[in-house]
Amino acid sequence: AQSVTQLGSHVSVSEGALVLLRCNYSSSVPPYLFWYVQYPNQGLQLLLKYTSAATLVKGINGFEAEFKKSETSFHLTKPSAHMSDAAEYFCAATTGTGANNLFFGTGTRLTVIP
Amino acid sequence: GAGVSQSPRYKVAKRGQDVALRCDPISGHVSLFWYQQALGQGPEFLTYFQNEAQLDKSGLPSDRFFAERPEGSVSTLKIQRTQQEDSAVYLCASSLDRGQPQHFGDGTRLSIL
């Protein structure tokens, strides 16, 4: 079965500081992994995706994530936080087979302190 | 270009009423998904369509939930005899085909009184 765990439901960083949002997955098959961002009262916007190509994935808005099979992790990072990064972030996985429906973590709310 | 459109954005219903939620996917997208997002939680899969065929409905929480996509485009999620625990945001997503990235609508926030 597929599952995704996000450590830390709330993360606060100062503007300009490093952003690190953690995600671990468990899967019996190599997964496809995604990070989505959700602004209030909006749907989810895809930040980046890992689909078994390069392990370091670059996404939009300066975000990137590294797939580490040995650690079953796919942490999201950004070198310098901007006020506009404040939002809810969801890590998600799919097996790449069948319906390809996404399994989501419970989300991490990022607060950026000016 | 047009994204995934969901209507209504907000729906308030009394317990026991039936509701219908609409999803207009991106034109040409073959795959369509419905997710339920409870307050403070991540979205959870409800059902999946490939064109007009409902290939997976394993996430539907009860037989009160019904989804259709009769012409392979617009989809409707219907909830009969609503209960308070049905209160959530219902998200629709579409993708060009199976395995392609999913594009989400802004959701319908359903409140059952």
Give a description of the structure.
By secondary structure, chain A is mainly β. Helix content of chain A is 0%, strand content 51%. Chain A contains no helices and twelve strands. Chain A has strands spanning 3-5, 10-14, 19-21, 24-26, 32-38, 44-50, 56-58, 64-68, 73-78, 87-94, 103-104, 108-113. In chain A, β8 (64-68) and β9 (73-78) form a beta hairpin. The N and C termini of chain A lie far apart (41 Å). The model of chain A has no long low-confidence stretch (mean pLDDT 90). Chain B is mainly β. Chain B has strands at residues 5-7, 10-13, 19-24, 31-37, 44-50, 53-56, 65-68, 75-79, 88-95, 103-104, 108-112. In chain B, strands 2, 4, 5, 6, 9, 10 and 11 form a seven-stranded mixed sheet that branches. In chain B, strands 1-3-8-7 form a four-stranded antiparallel sheet, with no helix packed on it. In chain B, a hairpin with a 6-residue loop joins β7 and β8 (75-79). The termini of chain B are far apart. The mean pLDDT of chain B is 94. At the A-B interface, β5, β6 and β11 of A face β4, β5, β9 and β10 of B.
